Amino acid sequence: MAGSGPFPDLATPLEETGLPKRDRKFLDGLEKLGLHKIGDALLHFPRRHEDRTRFDRFPEGGMEQPVCLHVVVTDCRSHFGRGRGGRSFEAVVEPVGGDLLGNRLVLRWFNMPYLAKVLAVGRRLVIFGQPKENKRRVVIDHPDFEIVDDDDATAAPHMGGIVPVYPLAAGVGQKPLRSLIHRLLELVPDEAMPDWLPASKDRELNRAAAIRTLHYPATMADLEPARRHLALEEFTALQLELLRRRAEFRKTHISPQGGPGLLLDDFLGRLPFMPTGAQLRSIAEIRDDLAQPVPMARLLQGDVGAGKTLVAAAAILLVVEKGSDAALMAPTQILAEQHFRTFRDWFAPLGVNVRLLTGSRDESGELPLFRAAQPSARLGNLTIGTHALFHGRAGFENGLALAVIDEQHKFGVAQREALVAQGEGVSVLAMTATPIPRTLTLAFYGDLDVSLLDELPAGRGKLITGIRLTTQTDQAAAFVKEQLTAGRQAYVVYPLIDESDKLAVGAATAAFADWAARLEGHRVGLVHGRMGADEKDAVMREFRSGAIEVLVATTVIEVGVDVSNANVMLIYHAERFGLAQLHQLRGRIGRGEHKSYCVLLVDPAQEEARTRLRILEETRDGFRIADEDLRQRGPGEVLGTMQSGLPDLKFADLLGDTRLVEEARRMAEAILEDADS
Fold this sequence. Notes:
- The chain is of the alpha/beta class.
- It is built from 19 helices and 23 strands.
- Among the domains are: about 55-155, CATH 2.40.50.140; about 260-455, Rossmann fold (3-Layer(aba) Sandwich), CATH 3.40.50.300; about 465-640, P-loop containing nucleotide triphosphate hydrolases (Rossmann fold), CATH 3.40.50.
- Residues about 1-5 and about 370-375 have low confidence and may be disordered.
């Protein structure tokens, strides 16, 4: 428990606490860690804990997991080989108290000669690292270590219990930082760390107890309840901000932005296929939104090929029928140009003008002289573009009423706001083909209503995914030739544009000539992000027409490119991509009636990558893949910059905390309700 009596509040600068003085280097290091005040230090939580009441078994060989050991140094030596990489320092250690089997362990550091002045025979250490076998020795390279000699007068925070291990910065050692935080925990009373969440009979801890436990738990099992309490705080703060954003957005009162739906009915009636139930449901939700006296704010989620563009078309037609303008913003010129062609073909018979506005192009589609459905009111226009839309060049003459943002996670908040600011009370339809796990949707998109396309249109061919080695290129080329002979087309994707000295991976430009030689008699094209817009457009036009049979490309083709005759994709060095990105890439095939094949080629040295990628062989379920991608890589790739400016999450388990997010939402609503009453 904390000590009693008065103490400076949590806003007190650390330099003014009266605690033992530290040198300037230590204080500068605290600054780098963002630790300026007492409250900052108490909320600087460990990256892991070590149970120093019971250490791991001393290793007799290599182990799959790291170990925490209490050891004594029995020998030290420096080695000087050729080049800087040849310099190393080794310390031979054995368990404190001796070892009947005579086990020894070698600790090894490269290019850290100063350790010869730090470690000496007889020194007692706590070490953490992963043992491996090396030339009949058991070695740990670059282990974490602390000197914990018995005569250390401040040993209490460092030994004999479950001990925190903190993130550090230059000038800040583990022991001094641990001593500082341990002393603050003793001095700061519980009242200085009050609860701010509404009371709940299900709560296991209060805030002060959770903070203390996260630093010094009595048992390892106590860490999870403490984490959950602080995660609930974070989620609630996040939901409060999202609810405030939603309320602010809905303060704008407008006339309903949707027309009666004559254009939409005409459009749907002309389709050569029946929309899926999910598409019709989403269209109905959007239609209801646009009939309200407040702007729409909706997220449209759909797996690759689920038909988001059709739903966006419905929203646009409702708005332009009312006489207002709409904008569709795409992250790449290739995707913007494809949308332009699609919407021009769809909307020309309806009399809706479609304009393309990019950094290098500004053009409109040609309208026929007559159209089938002629509403009495003047129609608005649709402008499709890239970042050029941010700069006010569009000049929405009828007033911008709807902004459709495709692949929303690829845009920043400021960019979207720059588009929305070009109108008053602009509705927003954000679309993503990256399925977002349920917890992330609840946590980060609470200011948006969500429509989900959970069905794929009928008539899609089967898609088979397989994992092979980059050394099997000859076999892959032979398979591609078979498919080309059958009249199909193929993509060959690389992670880089040019050869890289730092990364031993293939590059699209270097591979282009090789594939042209391998597939002699078939035309091979190249497309990447550094090509000029006209050059890219020409290549893509020839690929769509079938004049180019194989397209060697970078990830510039990740979104939007739709060539139904392309049924083969080879992805080189697939280990360099995230699961969600690979799922997006293979979504470029399997869009026609033919059986399709995605081959993930990995470096033979990357054996673990085959295990990581296996889920792509097992399923096309984008949400299952997104869950696994989140587990492996964290939320950054999924969220992008969509919700920047929101509170950080340090304690959230974004796969397992769905119930916490739901509870946080209820709490945030209760807090705002109490504030308004």
